Amino acid sequence: MTRLLLGVTLERICKAVLLLCLLHFVIIMILYFDVYAQHLDFFSRFNARNASRAHPFSNSSRFLGVPCPRQCHSPLRVPLAVCSEQRGDLGRLLIEFSSPMSMERVQRENPDVRQGGKYTPPDCLPRQKVAILIPFRHREHHLKYWLHYLHPILRRQKVAYGIYIINQYGEDTFNRAKLLNVGFLEALKDDEEYDCFIFSDVDLIPMDDRNLYRCYEQPRHFAVGMDKFGFRLPYAGYFGGVSGLSKSQFLKINGFPNEYWGWGGEDDDIFNRISLNGMKVSRPDIRIGRYRMIKHERDKHNEPNPQRFTKIQNTKMTMKRDGISSLQYRLVEVSRAPMYTNITVEIGRPPPRLARG
């Protein structure tokens, strides 16, 4: 009898142990599949996120013409950083004008430039939006070289820019400063977000792209050392060739004078306007601000202005009434070429000179 009871007890214990083992096994399997499912979900989401980074539109099937399912979400956009001005790929450049140049070559070399000569860095946020204005007449040969060199320079500098050629209509006496006043207004009509304006002669090419084409706290003179001057500043008040002013700086000096017909004088007048309005001219280091000039003969109808010395002495009296506030011109045509915007304008002719005696 005792043996029988002992056997029954052992049988019950074995069944209980077996049930416990079975229960333990079931619980382990449930936990295992739950964890496995979580891992599958994590890796599927991780892979989807990586795919969306590599292909921004891959998880939005509507771009393929397929209806987007409910779980389809637009990818998160990482904000762009501000463009850095400290770049290791900037430095001295070899500038030469002996190789033949064509506008087709310039266009082929700059596929990222938009119609009208506009460009915005795709990988960072530019600090300023720059309008580059070139007074122009009959300089197509020089323009090809200028575009050939400046487009790559500006792109390397991460500049958001537009290039405007201000073409004087007709054959009357050339007026560089008045054309630049026109360019300022017409560029703002084209894009009111421009906050920096660089005024450049078409025959000057920088020899170092660390000479950043942007505006500074003070008006900027870029062409510190031209080859024709032995790479030296010809005199302390020189402000010719290439200069830059912010929108507020330009308006503060009432723009440029309109009454300098012919060659010379207007740059000195602008320097006077800057000084008389309590600002100072800033410049790059002489080793960085070097320029090469494309050699050429003096243009017809751009002879030296005999009145320039008298006008320079009277800047203080004339700058408030002669400038952007008194500008008059007739817009002839605006056309957009692949590498620049052309603005052809009629600006009149100089007043007749009084007869002596």
From TrEMBL:
Its cofactor is Mn(2+). GO terms for biological process: carbohydrate metabolic process. Pfam families: Glyco_transf_7C, Glyco_transf_7N. Pathway: Protein modification; protein glycosylation. The keyword Glycoprotein applies. GO terms for molecular function: metal ion binding; N-acetyllactosamine synthase activity. It catalyses: N-acetyl-D-glucosamine + UDP-alpha-D-galactose = beta-D-galactosyl-(1->4)-N-acetyl-D-glucosamine + UDP + H(+). It comes from the Eukaryota. It is a single-pass type II membrane protein. Residues 90-215 form the Galactosyltransferase N-terminal domain. Its main location: Golgi. One of its GO terms (cellular component) is Golgi membrane. Residues 220-297 form the Galactosyltransferase C-terminal domain. The chain crosses the membrane at residues 12-33. It is found in: Golgi apparatus membrane. Its EC number is 2.4.1.-. Belongs to the glycosyltransferase 7 family. Responsible for the synthesis of complex-type N-linked oligosaccharides in many glycoproteins as well as the carbohydrate moieties of glycolipids. This is Beta-1,4-galactosyltransferase.
